[in-house]
């Protein structure tokens, strides 16, 4: 699966160059003084949110990114050159965590937002800079300061208003394809959708809202079953949930004992197991495929059940477009009325062990701009 929404990488900033100890020796200068220049600054590693970047895919195999060191100071008061910073362009909506403590370091929510994840060390002072009235010939200089290093986890937050959740094949992708600009793959087998799709829904005279089609969930998702936990994390970033259910055909040979009410309860349980904040998210239920007679037959019973629970209930068909306007209105109202989830509620990925041994690796500073996943649109679900 090419879609990468979470990567862990180790960032090492460059060390500062050492200050030089040198002396002026010139033909017509009688008293050559100290002339050691300062060391250059080590390169920092800076993350920049860029709206042209779609995914974190390109960072997937970058276990370590290292900035160059500052050069030592030179004679004749020449300062050592500083190393270039490494700029890593990441998608807007990237959350930066310390991978060891899982603490959130930065939320790069706006285009152009920057975060210096590892700070280059400053260069040491050369002996010339220590010259004073009491010490005309200092024989010492400073070493450069070490750059900082840290292991970070970058997570792509999926920014949507309403998440479509439900069992595989209930018709989530079909719904987003008829109400928004998204054109995801649709098929009659489970787990057609392998990564979340976003669609923009224009809604009467209101401002458009963003709908997310999330891969199908099954029992045990919070423990990693099916496509698992990573997508539950995406749902956490949506304001509200539209929970799709379907009536499976009575003659279905592969009938696995599914029932729309039980499906709903199972998935609601998965969401609650994953996080309290997900369990508390506003939710509406939508019965899909009511063009099918056996689905329409169940509509009244299901409506009575969910309305009895106080859960708003809708029924629609993506094929005949029956009930679509009401459903879009309901989702749009949810998008407007539900507050955005608070960042502190996001469930952290599992922490990684701190690094103990840093192997020498090739200097990666030659190309000092890392573009992350520029062409996310070229990915498909089935690669
Ligand atoms: N009759 C009928 N079939 C539908 C309707 N909506 C979707 N389907 C069919 O249901 C099947 C599954 O549709 P998808 O939209 O791919 O389902 P999904 O929920 O996105 O499935 P996953 O991505 O696997 O989780 C496809 O064969 C669709 O053609 C509907 O309104 N009426
Ligand atoms: Mg789908």
Please count the helical segments. Answer: 7
The secondary-structure element order is EEEEEEEEEHEEHEHHEHHEHE
**Name of the CATH homologous superfamily of the largest domain:** GTP1/OBG domain
The CATH class of the largest domain is identified as Mainly Beta
Structural class: alpha/beta
Poorly predicted segments: 360-366, 373-383
Bound chemical compounds: guanosine-5'-triphosphate, magnesium ion
What is the CATH third-level topology name of the largest domain?
Answer: Spo0b-associated Gtp-binding Protein, Chain: A
The general outline is: elongated
Radius of gyration: 29 Å
Strand order of the largest sheet: 10-11-9-12-13-14
Secondary structure topology:
Elements: E1 6-12, E2 45-50, E3 64-66, E4 86-91, E5 94-98, E6 104-108, E7 114-118, E8 149-156, E9 160-165, H1 172-179, E10 197-203, E11 206-213, H2 229-235, E12 238-245, H3 260-274, H4 276-279, E13 283-287, H5 293-296, H6 299-309, E14 313-315, H7 324-337, E15 369-371
Parallel strand pairs: 1-3, 2-4, 4-15, 9-11, 9-12, 12-13, 13-14
Antiparallel strand pairs: 1-8, 2-7, 5-6, 5-8, 10-11
Bound molecules: guanosine-5'-triphosphate (GTP) and magnesium ion.
Magnesium ion (MG) binds next to α1.
């Amino acid at each position: 699966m090419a879609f990468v929404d979470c990567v862990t990488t180790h960032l090492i900033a460059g060390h500062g160059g050492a200050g030089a100890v040198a002396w002026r020796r010139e033909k017509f200068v009688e008293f050559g003084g100290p002339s050691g220049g300062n060391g250059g600054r080590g390169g920092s590693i800076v993350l920049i949110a860029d709206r042209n970047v779609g995914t974190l895919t390109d960072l997937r195999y970058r276990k370590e990114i290292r900035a160059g060191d500052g050069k030592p100071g030179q004679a004749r008061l020449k300062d050592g050159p500083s190393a270039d910073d490494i700029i890593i362009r990441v998608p807007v909506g990237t959350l930066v965590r310390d991978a060891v403590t899982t603490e959130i370091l930065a939320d790069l929510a706006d285009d152009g937002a920057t975060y210096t994840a590892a700070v280059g060390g400053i260069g040491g002072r050369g002996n010339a800079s220590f010259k004073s009235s009491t010490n005309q010939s200092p024989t010492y200089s400073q070493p450069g300061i070490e750059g900082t290093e840290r292991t970070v986890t970058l997570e792509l937050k999926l920014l949507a208003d309403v998440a479509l959740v439900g069992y595989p094949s209930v018709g989530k992708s079909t719904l987003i394809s008829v109400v928004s600009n998204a054109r995801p793959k649709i098929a009659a087998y489970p787990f057609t959708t392998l990564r979340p799709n976003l669609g923009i829904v224009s809604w009467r005279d209101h401002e458009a809202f963003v709908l997310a089609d999330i891969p199908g969930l099954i029992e045990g998702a919070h423990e990693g079953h099916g496509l698992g936990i990573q997508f539950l994390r995406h749902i956490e970033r949506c304001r509200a949930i539209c929970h799709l259910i379907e009536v499976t055909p009575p003659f279905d040979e592969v009938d696995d004992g599914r029932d729309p009410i039980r499906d709903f309860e199972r998935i609601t349980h998965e969401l609650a197991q994953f996080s309290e904040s997900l369990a508390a998210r506003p939710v509406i239920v939508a019965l899909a495929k009511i063009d099918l007679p056996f689905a329409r037959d169940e509509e009244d019973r299901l409506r009575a059940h969910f309305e009895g629970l106080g859960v708003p209930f809708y029924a629609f068909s993506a094929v005949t477009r029956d009930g679509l306007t009401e459903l879009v209105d309901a989702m749009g109202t949810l998008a407007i009325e539900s507050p955005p989830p608070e960042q502190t509620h996001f469930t952290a990925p599992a922490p990684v062990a701190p690094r103990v041994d840093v192997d020498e690796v090739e200097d990666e500073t030659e190309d000092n701009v890392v573009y992350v996943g520029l062409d996310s649109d070229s990915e498909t679900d089935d690669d």
